[in-house]
Each structure stands twice: as structure tokens, then as C-alpha cells.
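Inverse folding, one chain.
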């Protein structure tokens, strides 16, 4: 009953409607035009310097390693990567494959997106207008979860191909094993259920860095333009990318001071300095323009709703991100040892480690400045905020540790840790029980009658999350039970203020079934009780229901009073 058709009925009209929603929402498109015009003007002004400057953007190696068909080692590494991809595909499709999968997919935001497209985040809470630009088009074409997960897997394949191309300075066997290990880490694997922007930023960053690499080899203007394009795509997809490019920028400036291309006195002559470092200037300009709109629109971090929802003490975050930070520390140790060993060389490896420095800045910003971690019930335990940190730290380790034995032990250790964490996470996937409950009700409720549904969910950390979970029930039931006369009751969800009603109006009330606040169920109600709810009032309600449940699974009991 709950499997959506492979394709929507009116794809072309949906594509227009959904993408108009994406394009005209708020003021992000005019801002993108302003950014493009300013960058275009400066690229034109600096065209001579860009074309004639030596390729000094010191992030890349000239050595290129290709796959060697005659080497058994390379084939074994390729087989390992294919096995990792197969494991990922199995994990993606082995659990619930509908919008009952998690609370985020069940909630108001997703249902509104299914009706009219994704509204970009470009407001007081977040500046990520490109985070789900492709999701609007995807929902316009299909709302079948099997197809959507196929799209997510295609994203993964594209990301792997781009990473394989970019990291071509790592021998092929090492590179393939590194990619296999990386995609099986819980940091990466646990993002494979739905369309996460964190996968998109890997694609955008790899494309940007490949273009920068081409520029460093050719000094051609078009590669700078493409680099800036993909760089801005990454930044406006996920805010933390600005930290990554800031780290690269600082590393490159320090490198130019190290090799005496510029001195501290050069900063007294800005235009001359810009001509000496045109690419660095253009990067800084992109970061500056993003920062301007960020500080104009954003509320301070202390009062930002999105940040406060996931704010923690940095001491607890060290434990939360322990795996990613441990890999990062190992990469930094390798970096410092190499910097010390080659201290007298012109191109000190410290500066060639700019990608690690950029990923370090992300880790520092997340843990010590923003002090944030995913906090929604379906995201707790997921550490994808440091996905880029893990990616570049792990790549640096596989590039520079020469001992095959050390790398083998490291790979096995990471894979064992990942297996334990991934199995633990898979046990927390409970969407199938929500769908089973809904399917039972669909088979037993009469479409012609008014059906009263009384929901008692598991208590969460805060009242706000309680409210969100019950809203998710209401929304997904309205979406799947379009032909039923359904009234939802709850003793946990109370709309008390005008601001709550305004909030719901912003989410379009036509896709929202209002929830009746009532303390106890009454005769004729269908009652759904989460077995993990041990509140005294819940136990009292359960005690006063004399009959046995008409339906039961691992998570829920369903009664008909």
C-alpha cells in the first residue's frame, strides 16, 4: 500500500512547479547573481596575472599513478572497493524503504517538499540554498524510495570516481583500499539512507580541486572560472566548506611567505599583492561575500535555533567525534614529521598538506567554536559533520605511510571499528515498525467512518522533540491516508501559542492534520502505544485498557477501544 509509483503522473509540470519554488524562495538567486558578477569582473581584471603567473598553487603533486592491469595487487584492491560498494547497497535497501524510514522523512518539511518542492535554507538559521537543489527535481520525477535510494547510490559512485581521479598521486592499490575503507566508515555509510548534502559537497569539492589542479598545470583562465564555480557550489551547499577553503587559503599564503614570493611588507601594497596571488585573492573574495550575507541574515550563534538544537560542551564532542578526531590527529602527526624532515626544502611538506589543514579547521570550528552535533532522534550518533575531516586526513595517511604492514593493520582496525558501529546503528533503524503499524490500520480502518487515532510515543529529551515526533506521525498519515477521515489525538502534543500556529501556517496547513490535545483515549479510538514509553500517565492508560492488543510488533501495541 505504501509503495509510491516509480514515476509521478505530471513530471514536466512538477519540475516547473518544484523548481520555481526552489528558485524564487527568499532572496538567494539575486545574491548568487551579485556573487557571479563580482567574481566575473575580478577574473577579467586579473586575466593577465592568472594566465602568466607560474603554477604555484601548492596543493598538488606532479606524479600520477594509474591502475595497472598486470598487477594482482591493484585487482585485489579493486575487488575490495567493489565489495565495499556491495555492502553499502545492501545496507541501503535492507531496512525500511518508504517515508516511514525516519522522523525527518515523516515530518512536515519532507511532506511539503513532496507537494511543492524544497524551499532553500537562506534565512536566520542557515545559509545553504543549494543543499537540496537536486531533491526538488527528484521529488518532481519520483517519490518512490527505491528510486530515491538508487539516486543516492549514483551520487556515491560519482563521488568515488571524482575522488579516484583527484587522488591520482596515491598509488592505485592504496587509493582503492583507502576509498573502500572510507565509504564503509560509519561517518560515510550512515549517510546512505537519504539525500544528505554532505555527499554533494564531496562531489563539489572534488570537482573544484580537480579544476584547481588543472590550473596549477596549465595556468588557463577557464580552469580558474570552473574552480570558483564548484567552490561556491560547495560553500552554498554546506556552511562548513567555508572553513575548509579558509584553511587552504591560509596554508597557501604561508607557503608564499615561506618561499619568499611575498613578504609581510607586501600587505602594505594590496593591489600588487593581489596581482602576485590572484587565485588566493579570488578565494578570499568568495569567502568574504559569503561571510557578508551570513552575518547580515544570521542571528548570533548564541540564539541561532539550528545551532542551539545541537549544541554540546566541547568535552562531550571530543568523545562524540572520537573516531574522526583520532584519524585527524594521526594525519597531523604524519604531517609534522614530514615537515620536520624536509624543513630546509623550498616546498616544505607542511604546505603541501593544505588539504589536511583545511579539514583541521573544519574540525576545530565544529568542536570548539560551533560546538555542535546532529541532535534529531534519527541522527543521534551520526558524525557526518566531520566527513571532510575524515576524508582528507585518511587520504593523507594512505599517501605518506609507506609500510604496507602498518596500512594493513590500520585498515583492518578501521573496518572492524566501522563494522561494530554500523551494526549498532542498523539496530536503531525502526522505520519498519512504523510502516507495519500503518499498514495494519489501513487494512482495518473504514474509509467511510471518522477514524480517531490516539498516539503515545516514546518520550524524548525535550518537549520540542516530543512535539516534532507526533507532528511527524500526523503528517505522514495525512500523506499516505489521503482517502481516510482521520483525526489524530495525543497527550504529548499541545499547540498553546499563536507563534505555534503561525509556524504551522508557514508549513502549509493543507498538508498538516491538526492534532487534538487530549489526556486519555475514549471509546472508538485506535490507540497506538510505544512500548518504550514508561511515563506514569502512559502506564496508567495501558493499565486501564482491559483487552489485548489487536496488533503488536517489536515497537508498538495497537488497541481498539
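Residues assigned per position:
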Amino acid at each position: 500500500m505504501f509503495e509510491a509509483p516509480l514515476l509521478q503522473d505530471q513530471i514536466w509540470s512538477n519540475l516547473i512547479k518544484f523548481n520555481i519554488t526552489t528558485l524564487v524562495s527568499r532572496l538567494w538567486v539575486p545574491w548568487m547573481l551579485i556573487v557571479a558578477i563580482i567574481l566575473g569582473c575580478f577574473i577579467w581584471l586579473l586575466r593577465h596575472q592568472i594566465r602568466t603567473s607560474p603554477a604555484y598553487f601548492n596543493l598538488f603533486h606532479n606524479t600520477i599513478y594509474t591502475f595497472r592491469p598486470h598487477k594482482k595487487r591493484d585487482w585485489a584492491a579493486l575487488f575490495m572497493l567493489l565489495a565495499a560498494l556491495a555492502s553499502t547497497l545492501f545496507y541501503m535497501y535492507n531496512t525500511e524503504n518508504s517515508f516511514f524510514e525516519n522522523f525527518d522523512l515523516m515530518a512536515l518539511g519532507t511532506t511539503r517538499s513532496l507537494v511543492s518542492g524544497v524551499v532553500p535554507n537562506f534565512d536566520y538559521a542557515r545559509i545553504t540554498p543549494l543543499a537540496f537543489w537536486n531533491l526538488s527535481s527528484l521529488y518532481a520525477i519520483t517519490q518512490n524510495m527505491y528510486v530515491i535510494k538508487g539516486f543516492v547510490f549514483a551520487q556515491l559512485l560519482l563521488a568515488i570516481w571524482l575522488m579516484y581521479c583527484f587522488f591520482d598521486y596515491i598509488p592505485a592499490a592504496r587509493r582503492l583500499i583507502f576509498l573502500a575503507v572510507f565509504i564503509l566508515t560509519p561517518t560515510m555509510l550512515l549517510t546512505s539512507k537519504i539525500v544528505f548534502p554532505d555527499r554533494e559537497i564531496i562531489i563539489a569539492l572534488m570537482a573544484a580541486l580537480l579544476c584547481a589542479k588543472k590550473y596549477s598545470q596549465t595556468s588557463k583562465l577557464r580552469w580558474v572560472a570552473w574552480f570558483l564555480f564548484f567552490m561556491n557550489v560547495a560553500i552554498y551547499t554546506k556552511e562548513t566548506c567555508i572553513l575548509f577553503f579558509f584553511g587552504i587559503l591560509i596554508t597557501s599564503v604561508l607557503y608564499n611567505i615561506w618561499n619568499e614570493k611575498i613578504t609581510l611588507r607586501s600587505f602594505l601594497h594590496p593591489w600588487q599583492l593581489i596581482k602576485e596571488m590572484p587565485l588566493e585573492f579570488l578565494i578570499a573574495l568568495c569567502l568574504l561575500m559569503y561571510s557578508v550575507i551570513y552575518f547580515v541574515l544570521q542571528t548570533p550563534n548564541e540564539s541561532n535555533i539550528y545551532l542551539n538544537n545541537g549544541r554540546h560542551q566541547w568535552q562531550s564532542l571530543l568523545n562524540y567525534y572520537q573516531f574522526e578526531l583520532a584519524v585527524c590527529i594521526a594525519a597531523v602527526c604524519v604531517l609534522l614529521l614530514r615537515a620536520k624532515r624536509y624543513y630546509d626544502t623550498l616546498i616544505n611538506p607542511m604546505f603541501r598538506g593544505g588539504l589536511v589543514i583545511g579539514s583541521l579547521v573544519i574540525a576545530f570550528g565544529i568542536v570548539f567554536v560551533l560546538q555542535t552535533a546532529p541532535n534529531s532522534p534519527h541522527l543521534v550518533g551520526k558524525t557526518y559533520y566531520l566527513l571532510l575531516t575524515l576524508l582528507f586526513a585518511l587520504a593523507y595517511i594512505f599517501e605518506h605511510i609507506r609500510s604496507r604492514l602498518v596500512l594493513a593493520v590500520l585498515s583492518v582496525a578501521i573496518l572492524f571499528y566501522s563494522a561494530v558501529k554500523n551494526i549498532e546503528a542498523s539496530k536503531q533503524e525502526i522505520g519498519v515498525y512504523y510502516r507495519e503499524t500503518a499498514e495494519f490500520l489501513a487494512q482495518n480502518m473504514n474509509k467511510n467512518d471518522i477514524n480517531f487515532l490516539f498516539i503515545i510515543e516514546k518520550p524524548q529529551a525535550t518537549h520540542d522533540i516530543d512535539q516534532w515526533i507526533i507532528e511527524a506521525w500526523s503528517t505522514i498519515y495525512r500523506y499516505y491516508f489521503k482517502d481516510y477521515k482521520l483525526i489524530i489525538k495525543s497527550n504529548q502534543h499541545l499547540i498553546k501559542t499563536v507563534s505555534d500556529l503561525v509556524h504551522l501556517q508557514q508549513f502549509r496547513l493543507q498538508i498538516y492534520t491538526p492534532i487534538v490535545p487530549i489526556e486519555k483515549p475514549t471509546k472508538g479510538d485506535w490507540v497506538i502505544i510505544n512500548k518504550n514509553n514508561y511515563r506514569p500517565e502512559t502506564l496508567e492508560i495501558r493499565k486501564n485498557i482491559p483487552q489485548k492488543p489487536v496488533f503488536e510488533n517489536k515497537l508498538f501495541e495497537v488497541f481498539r477501544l
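The chain has 26 helices and eight strands. The first strand starts at residue 121 and ends at 122.
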